[in-house]
Amino acid sequence: MEKMSTLSSHIKLLAFDIDGVLTDGKKYIGAGQDELKAVQLRDLDALGMLKNKGYLLGCISGEDTLFCRKLAEIEALDFAVLGCKDKAKALEDIRQKQGLKYEEVCYVGDGRYDIPVLKKVGLAICPADAIPEAKHISDIVLQCRGGEGCLAEIYTILTCNKKDSGEKKSAIGFTLPPSESVLNGIIQHRDVVDRLERDEVLLNEFSYAVSRIIESLETGGSLFLCGNGGSAADAQHLAAELVGRFYLERKAFKAQALTVNTSVLTCLANDYDYDMIFARQLEGAASPGDCLIGFTTSGKSPNVLKAFRTAKKMGLHTILMTGEISDDFEILSYADCAVRVPSQCTPRIQEMHILLGHILCELVEYALAGE
Protein backbone atom coordinates (compact mmCIF):
# COMPACT_ATOMS: atom_id res chain seq x y z
CA MET A 1 0.00 0.00 0.00
CA GLU A 2 2.89 2.34 0.80
CA LYS A 3 4.44 1.61 -2.61
CA MET A 4 1.16 2.33 -4.38
CA SER A 5 0.80 5.62 -2.50
CA THR A 6 4.33 6.67 -3.44
CA LEU A 7 3.89 5.76 -7.09
CA SER A 8 0.49 7.36 -7.56
CA SER A 9 1.33 10.62 -5.77
CA HIS A 10 3.62 11.79 -8.61
CA ILE A 11 1.31 11.02 -11.52
CA LYS A 12 0.32 13.89 -13.83
CA LEU A 13 -0.74 12.04 -17.00
CA LEU A 14 -3.04 9.05 -17.37
CA ALA A 15 -3.08 7.16 -20.68
CA PHE A 16 -5.10 4.03 -21.37
CA ASP A 17 -5.94 1.47 -24.01
CA ILE A 18 -9.56 1.32 -25.15
CA ASP A 19 -10.30 -2.34 -25.93
CA GLY A 20 -9.87 -4.44 -22.82
CA VAL A 21 -9.73 -1.43 -20.49
CA LEU A 22 -12.53 1.01 -21.24
CA THR A 23 -14.47 -1.84 -22.94
CA ASP A 24 -14.51 -5.59 -22.32
CA GLY A 25 -12.32 -6.25 -25.37
CA LYS A 26 -15.04 -8.20 -27.16
CA LYS A 27 -16.44 -7.30 -30.55
CA TYR A 28 -20.21 -7.27 -31.03
CA ILE A 29 -21.69 -6.92 -34.51
CA GLY A 30 -25.17 -5.43 -34.91
CA ALA A 31 -27.74 -6.33 -37.55
CA GLY A 32 -26.37 -3.62 -39.81
CA GLN A 33 -22.83 -4.98 -39.39
CA ASP A 34 -22.01 -2.05 -37.11
CA GLU A 35 -19.54 -2.63 -34.31
CA LEU A 36 -21.26 -2.33 -30.94
CA LYS A 37 -19.50 -1.84 -27.61
CA ALA A 38 -20.49 -0.62 -24.17
CA VAL A 39 -18.77 1.84 -21.87
CA GLN A 40 -19.54 2.13 -18.16
CA LEU A 41 -21.03 5.49 -17.24
CA ARG A 42 -18.95 5.53 -14.08
CA ASP A 43 -15.80 5.37 -16.24
CA LEU A 44 -16.94 8.44 -18.16
CA ASP A 45 -17.72 10.13 -14.84
CA ALA A 46 -14.24 9.20 -13.61
CA LEU A 47 -12.65 10.86 -16.65
CA GLY A 48 -14.47 14.09 -15.86
CA MET A 49 -13.45 13.95 -12.19
CA LEU A 50 -9.82 13.22 -13.07
CA LYS A 51 -9.84 16.17 -15.48
CA ASN A 52 -11.16 18.37 -12.69
CA LYS A 53 -8.28 17.14 -10.52
CA GLY A 54 -5.83 18.45 -13.10
CA TYR A 55 -4.67 15.21 -14.74
CA LEU A 56 -3.78 15.06 -18.43
CA LEU A 57 -5.85 12.29 -20.02
CA GLY A 58 -5.71 10.36 -23.26
CA CYS A 59 -6.12 7.03 -25.02
CA ILE A 60 -3.65 5.05 -27.13
CA SER A 61 -5.44 2.30 -29.04
CA GLY A 62 -4.30 -0.25 -31.57
CA GLU A 63 -7.76 -0.03 -33.16
CA ASP A 64 -9.09 2.71 -35.39
CA THR A 65 -12.81 2.08 -35.62
CA LEU A 66 -15.87 4.29 -35.69
CA PHE A 67 -16.43 3.39 -32.05
CA CYS A 68 -12.88 4.44 -31.10
CA ARG A 69 -13.24 7.70 -33.01
CA LYS A 70 -16.42 8.51 -31.11
CA LEU A 71 -14.64 7.88 -27.81
CA ALA A 72 -11.75 10.07 -28.93
CA GLU A 73 -14.19 12.99 -29.07
CA ILE A 74 -14.80 12.88 -25.30
CA GLU A 75 -14.24 16.41 -24.03
CA ALA A 76 -12.14 15.31 -21.05
CA LEU A 77 -9.43 13.76 -23.25
CA ASP A 78 -6.34 15.81 -24.05
CA PHE A 79 -5.13 13.41 -26.75
CA ALA A 80 -6.20 10.29 -28.66
CA VAL A 81 -3.91 8.06 -30.72
CA LEU A 82 -5.77 5.43 -32.75
CA GLY A 83 -4.64 2.55 -34.96
CA CYS A 84 -1.21 2.52 -33.30
CA LYS A 85 0.68 -0.71 -32.66
CA ASP A 86 3.88 1.04 -31.53
CA LYS A 87 2.38 2.45 -28.38
CA ALA A 88 5.76 3.08 -26.74
CA LYS A 89 6.68 5.47 -29.56
CA ALA A 90 3.28 7.19 -29.31
CA LEU A 91 3.65 7.69 -25.57
CA GLU A 92 7.21 8.97 -25.99
CA ASP A 93 5.96 11.67 -28.38
CA ILE A 94 3.20 12.66 -25.95
CA ARG A 95 5.55 12.68 -22.97
CA GLN A 96 8.02 14.94 -24.71
CA LYS A 97 5.30 17.27 -25.95
CA GLN A 98 3.94 17.66 -22.41
CA GLY A 99 7.43 17.98 -20.89
CA LEU A 100 6.90 15.11 -18.45
CA LYS A 101 9.12 12.40 -17.01
CA TYR A 102 8.06 8.76 -17.31
CA GLU A 103 7.77 8.72 -13.51
CA GLU A 104 4.86 11.15 -13.91
CA VAL A 105 2.94 8.92 -16.33
CA CYS A 106 0.41 6.21 -15.53
CA TYR A 107 -0.59 3.76 -18.28
CA VAL A 108 -3.40 1.21 -18.26
CA GLY A 109 -3.26 -1.71 -20.68
CA ASP A 110 -4.18 -5.37 -20.98
CA GLY A 111 -2.48 -6.91 -24.03
CA ARG A 112 0.85 -7.61 -25.70
CA TYR A 113 1.06 -4.25 -27.50
CA ASP A 114 0.78 -2.56 -24.09
CA ILE A 115 3.73 -4.37 -22.50
CA PRO A 116 6.50 -2.05 -23.81
CA VAL A 117 4.59 0.93 -22.40
CA LEU A 118 3.84 -0.74 -19.07
CA LYS A 119 7.57 -1.38 -18.64
CA LYS A 120 8.45 2.32 -19.05
CA VAL A 121 5.93 4.30 -17.07
CA GLY A 122 6.01 5.36 -13.43
CA LEU A 123 2.75 3.58 -12.62
CA ALA A 124 1.74 0.53 -14.69
CA ILE A 125 -1.82 -0.75 -14.21
CA CYS A 126 -3.76 -3.59 -15.85
CA PRO A 127 -7.31 -4.98 -15.49
CA ALA A 128 -7.99 -8.22 -13.63
CA ASP A 129 -8.40 -10.13 -16.90
CA ALA A 130 -5.23 -8.84 -18.60
CA ILE A 131 -2.80 -11.33 -20.15
CA PRO A 132 -0.38 -12.91 -17.62
CA GLU A 133 2.61 -11.02 -19.03
CA ALA A 134 0.88 -7.68 -18.41
CA LYS A 135 -0.04 -8.69 -14.86
CA HIS A 136 3.54 -9.73 -14.16
CA ILE A 137 5.04 -6.33 -14.96
CA SER A 138 2.22 -4.10 -13.68
CA ASP A 139 2.50 -2.25 -10.39
CA ILE A 140 -1.23 -2.68 -9.78
CA VAL A 141 -3.67 -5.34 -11.00
CA LEU A 142 -7.19 -3.94 -10.66
CA GLN A 143 -10.11 -5.77 -9.10
CA CYS A 144 -12.16 -4.76 -12.16
CA ARG A 145 -12.09 -6.63 -15.42
CA GLY A 146 -11.93 -4.73 -18.70
CA GLY A 147 -15.12 -2.76 -19.34
CA GLU A 148 -16.31 -3.14 -15.74
CA GLY A 149 -15.21 0.18 -14.25
CA CYS A 150 -11.40 0.23 -14.57
CA LEU A 151 -11.11 4.01 -14.79
CA ALA A 152 -13.44 4.48 -11.82
CA GLU A 153 -11.21 2.20 -9.75
CA ILE A 154 -8.12 4.07 -10.97
CA TYR A 155 -9.72 7.37 -9.93
CA THR A 156 -9.88 5.95 -6.42
CA ILE A 157 -6.26 4.79 -6.54
CA LEU A 158 -4.93 8.11 -7.80
CA THR A 159 -7.01 10.51 -5.74
CA CYS A 160 -7.13 8.75 -2.38
CA ASN A 161 -3.35 8.98 -2.14
CA LYS A 162 -3.06 12.63 -3.18
CA LYS A 163 -3.05 15.33 -0.52
CA ASP A 164 -5.94 17.74 -0.73
CA SER A 165 -4.90 21.34 -0.17
CA GLY A 166 -8.45 22.17 0.78
CA GLU A 167 -8.59 20.10 3.96
CA LYS A 168 -11.30 21.19 6.35
CA LYS A 169 -11.42 20.97 10.11
CA SER A 170 -14.45 20.32 12.23
CA ALA A 171 -15.49 22.62 15.04
CA ILE A 172 -13.50 20.54 17.55
CA GLY A 173 -10.32 20.49 15.48
CA PHE A 174 -10.38 17.10 13.76
CA THR A 175 -9.43 16.98 10.07
CA LEU A 176 -12.43 16.05 7.96
CA PRO A 177 -11.99 13.76 4.94
CA PRO A 178 -12.33 15.50 1.57
CA SER A 179 -15.61 14.90 -0.23
CA GLU A 180 -13.72 12.84 -2.83
CA SER A 181 -12.86 10.26 -0.17
CA VAL A 182 -16.55 9.79 0.51
CA LEU A 183 -17.22 9.58 -3.22
CA ASN A 184 -14.49 6.95 -3.62
CA GLY A 185 -16.27 4.64 -1.21
CA ILE A 186 -19.57 5.14 -3.02
CA ILE A 187 -17.93 4.41 -6.39
CA GLN A 188 -16.37 1.20 -5.05
CA HIS A 189 -19.69 0.13 -3.55
CA ARG A 190 -21.54 0.80 -6.81
CA ASP A 191 -18.92 -1.14 -8.76
CA VAL A 192 -19.47 -4.28 -6.66
CA VAL A 193 -23.25 -3.87 -6.93
CA ASP A 194 -22.92 -3.76 -10.73
CA ARG A 195 -20.81 -6.93 -10.71
CA LEU A 196 -23.32 -8.58 -8.37
CA GLU A 197 -26.14 -7.74 -10.76
CA ARG A 198 -24.38 -9.47 -13.67
CA ASP A 199 -23.21 -12.55 -11.75
CA GLU A 200 -25.68 -15.22 -12.90
CA VAL A 201 -24.06 -17.96 -10.81
CA LEU A 202 -24.39 -15.88 -7.64
CA LEU A 203 -27.98 -14.94 -8.40
CA ASN A 204 -28.91 -18.58 -9.01
CA GLU A 205 -27.20 -19.67 -5.78
CA PHE A 206 -28.99 -16.93 -3.85
CA SER A 207 -32.37 -17.85 -5.34
CA TYR A 208 -31.77 -21.47 -4.33
CA ALA A 209 -30.92 -20.35 -0.79
CA VAL A 210 -34.11 -18.30 -0.50
CA SER A 211 -36.18 -21.27 -1.72
CA ARG A 212 -34.64 -23.63 0.85
CA ILE A 213 -35.27 -21.16 3.69
CA ILE A 214 -38.90 -20.62 2.66
CA GLU A 215 -39.43 -24.36 2.40
CA SER A 216 -37.92 -24.98 5.83
CA LEU A 217 -39.82 -22.22 7.65
CA GLU A 218 -43.07 -23.19 5.93
CA THR A 219 -42.80 -26.74 7.33
CA GLY A 220 -41.93 -25.66 10.89
CA GLY A 221 -38.18 -25.55 10.53
CA SER A 222 -35.77 -23.00 11.92
CA LEU A 223 -33.13 -20.72 10.45
CA PHE A 224 -29.80 -20.39 12.27
CA LEU A 225 -27.22 -17.72 11.43
CA CYS A 226 -23.59 -17.30 12.47
CA GLY A 227 -20.47 -15.24 11.77
CA ASN A 228 -17.68 -13.30 13.45
CA GLY A 229 -17.23 -9.58 14.06
CA GLY A 230 -19.15 -7.56 11.49
CA SER A 231 -20.57 -10.82 10.13
CA ALA A 232 -21.90 -11.61 13.61
CA ALA A 233 -23.72 -8.29 13.49
CA ASP A 234 -25.15 -9.24 10.09
CA ALA A 235 -26.37 -12.57 11.50
CA GLN A 236 -28.09 -10.82 14.41
CA HIS A 237 -29.53 -8.11 12.18
CA LEU A 238 -31.22 -10.56 9.82
CA ALA A 239 -32.48 -12.76 12.64
CA ALA A 240 -34.11 -9.65 14.16
CA GLU A 241 -35.79 -8.79 10.84
CA LEU A 242 -37.30 -12.28 10.63
CA VAL A 243 -38.39 -12.62 14.25
CA GLY A 244 -39.78 -9.09 14.24
CA ARG A 245 -41.10 -7.79 10.95
CA PHE A 246 -39.67 -6.51 7.72
CA TYR A 247 -42.61 -4.90 5.87
CA LEU A 248 -45.63 -6.97 6.86
CA GLU A 249 -47.50 -7.59 10.09
CA ARG A 250 -47.31 -11.37 10.49
CA LYS A 251 -46.32 -14.09 12.96
CA ALA A 252 -42.67 -14.38 13.97
CA PHE A 253 -40.44 -16.66 11.93
CA LYS A 254 -38.10 -19.11 13.67
CA ALA A 255 -34.74 -17.42 13.24
CA GLN A 256 -31.85 -17.48 15.71
CA ALA A 257 -28.37 -15.94 15.61
CA LEU A 258 -25.80 -18.19 17.27
CA THR A 259 -23.76 -15.16 18.33
CA VAL A 260 -25.86 -13.55 21.06
CA ASN A 261 -25.66 -15.66 24.25
CA THR A 262 -22.41 -14.55 25.89
CA SER A 263 -22.64 -17.18 28.64
CA VAL A 264 -22.90 -19.97 26.07
CA LEU A 265 -20.18 -18.48 23.87
CA THR A 266 -17.68 -18.02 26.70
CA CYS A 267 -18.51 -21.42 28.18
CA LEU A 268 -17.85 -23.22 24.91
CA ALA A 269 -14.75 -21.17 24.12
CA ASN A 270 -13.33 -21.82 27.62
CA ASP A 271 -14.32 -25.46 28.17
CA TYR A 272 -13.89 -26.70 24.60
CA ASP A 273 -12.49 -24.47 21.87
CA TYR A 274 -13.51 -21.21 20.21
CA ASP A 275 -13.90 -23.11 16.94
CA MET A 276 -16.78 -25.04 18.56
CA ILE A 277 -18.98 -22.08 19.57
CA PHE A 278 -21.45 -22.47 16.69
CA ALA A 279 -21.27 -26.21 16.03
CA ARG A 280 -22.06 -27.12 19.65
CA GLN A 281 -25.12 -24.86 19.69
CA LEU A 282 -26.42 -26.53 16.53
CA GLU A 283 -26.06 -29.94 18.19
CA GLY A 284 -28.42 -28.79 20.94
CA ALA A 285 -30.96 -26.76 18.97
CA ALA A 286 -31.13 -27.79 15.31
CA SER A 287 -33.10 -30.53 13.58
CA PRO A 288 -32.95 -32.12 10.12
CA GLY A 289 -34.50 -29.81 7.53
CA ASP A 290 -33.48 -26.62 9.33
CA CYS A 291 -31.27 -24.06 7.56
CA LEU A 292 -27.92 -22.56 8.51
CA ILE A 293 -26.54 -19.33 7.02
CA GLY A 294 -22.83 -18.85 7.69
CA PHE A 295 -21.22 -15.46 7.05
CA THR A 296 -17.46 -15.42 6.45
CA THR A 297 -16.00 -12.83 4.08
CA SER A 298 -12.73 -14.78 3.76
CA GLY A 299 -14.28 -18.25 3.61
CA LYS A 300 -11.73 -19.34 6.23
CA SER A 301 -13.44 -18.82 9.62
CA PRO A 302 -12.73 -22.09 11.53
CA ASN A 303 -15.85 -21.86 13.70
CA VAL A 304 -18.10 -21.33 10.66
CA LEU A 305 -16.39 -24.28 8.93
CA LYS A 306 -17.03 -26.55 11.93
CA ALA A 307 -20.63 -25.36 12.08
CA PHE A 308 -21.07 -26.36 8.43
CA ARG A 309 -19.54 -29.81 9.05
CA THR A 310 -21.92 -30.39 11.95
CA ALA A 311 -24.90 -29.02 10.04
CA LYS A 312 -24.30 -31.39 7.10
CA LYS A 313 -24.06 -34.39 9.45
CA MET A 314 -27.35 -33.36 11.06
CA GLY A 315 -29.20 -32.92 7.76
CA LEU A 316 -29.46 -29.12 7.68
CA HIS A 317 -29.49 -27.01 4.52
CA THR A 318 -26.23 -25.03 4.53
CA ILE A 319 -25.95 -21.58 2.92
CA LEU A 320 -22.57 -19.86 2.69
CA MET A 321 -22.33 -16.07 2.41
CA THR A 322 -18.75 -15.21 1.51
CA GLY A 323 -16.47 -13.21 -0.80
CA GLU A 324 -14.55 -14.02 -3.96
CA ILE A 325 -13.04 -17.35 -2.89
CA SER A 326 -11.67 -20.11 -5.13
CA ASP A 327 -13.29 -23.51 -5.69
CA ASP A 328 -10.71 -25.35 -3.56
CA PHE A 329 -11.84 -23.81 -0.25
CA GLU A 330 -12.80 -26.61 2.16
CA ILE A 331 -15.97 -24.94 3.38
CA LEU A 332 -17.51 -25.21 -0.09
CA SER A 333 -17.64 -29.00 0.23
CA TYR A 334 -20.09 -28.57 3.13
CA ALA A 335 -22.23 -25.85 1.54
CA ASP A 336 -25.42 -26.64 -0.36
CA CYS A 337 -25.07 -23.24 -1.99
CA ALA A 338 -22.45 -20.53 -1.86
CA VAL A 339 -23.21 -16.85 -2.46
CA ARG A 340 -19.75 -15.52 -3.38
CA VAL A 341 -19.71 -11.73 -3.60
CA PRO A 342 -17.34 -10.74 -6.47
CA SER A 343 -14.91 -8.76 -4.32
CA GLN A 344 -11.99 -9.34 -1.97
CA CYS A 345 -12.59 -6.13 0.01
CA THR A 346 -14.15 -6.97 3.39
CA PRO A 347 -16.28 -3.79 3.78
CA ARG A 348 -17.69 -4.12 0.26
CA ILE A 349 -18.45 -7.82 0.81
CA GLN A 350 -20.28 -7.09 4.05
CA GLU A 351 -22.27 -4.33 2.37
CA MET A 352 -23.41 -6.82 -0.27
CA HIS A 353 -24.24 -9.40 2.41
CA ILE A 354 -26.61 -7.02 4.15
CA LEU A 355 -28.13 -5.96 0.81
CA LEU A 356 -28.78 -9.59 -0.10
CA GLY A 357 -29.93 -10.28 3.46
CA HIS A 358 -32.59 -7.58 3.22
CA ILE A 359 -33.74 -8.97 -0.12
CA LEU A 360 -33.91 -12.43 1.48
CA CYS A 361 -36.07 -11.11 4.33
CA GLU A 362 -38.42 -9.41 1.89
CA LEU A 363 -38.79 -12.51 -0.29
CA VAL A 364 -39.30 -14.84 2.70
CA GLU A 365 -41.89 -12.53 4.24
CA TYR A 366 -43.78 -12.13 0.96
CA ALA A 367 -43.79 -15.89 0.32
CA LEU A 368 -45.00 -16.83 3.80
CA ALA A 369 -47.15 -13.87 4.82
CA GLY A 370 -48.04 -11.97 1.66
CA GLU A 371 -51.55 -11.95 0.29
Q: What can you see in these coordinates?
A:
It is a single chain. The chain has 371 residues and is α/β, with parallel strands linked by helices. It has two domains: 187 residues, 3-Layer(aba) Sandwich (Rossmann fold), CATH 3.40.50.1000; 171 residues, Glucose-6-phosphate isomerase like protein, domain 1 (Rossmann fold). 46% of the residues lie in helices and 14% in strands. The strands form four sheets. It has a six-stranded parallel beta sheet, sandwiched between helices. It has a five-stranded parallel beta sheet with strand order 12-11-13-14-15, with helices on both faces. A hairpin with a 5-residue loop joins strand 9 and strand 10. The longest helix is centred in the last third of the chain and has 24 residues. The termini are far apart. 41% of the residues are buried. The N terminus is likely disordered.
According to CATH, what is the topology of the largest domain?
Answer: Rossmann fold
Q: Count of DSSP helices?
A: 15
Helical content (DSSP H or I, runs of 4+): 40-55%
Spell the H/E element sequence. HEHEEHEHEHEHEHEHEEHHEHEHHEHEEH
- Total strand segments: 15
First-residue to last-residue Cα separation:
53 Å
Integer tally of domains: 2
CATH superfamily of the largest domain: HAD superfamily/HAD-like
Per the principal axes of the C-alpha atoms, what is the gross shape?
elongated
Q: Which CATH class of the largest domain applies here?
A: Alpha Beta
| Low-confidence parts | 1-6
Main beta sheet: 6 strands, parallel
- Radius of gyration using CA atoms only: 25 Å
Mean pLDDT: 89
CATH architecture of the largest domain: 3-Layer(aba) Sandwich
Question: In which order are the strands of the major sheet placed?
Answer: 5-4-1-6-7-8
Pairing-aware structural class of the strands and helices? alpha/beta
Strand percentage lies at 5-15%
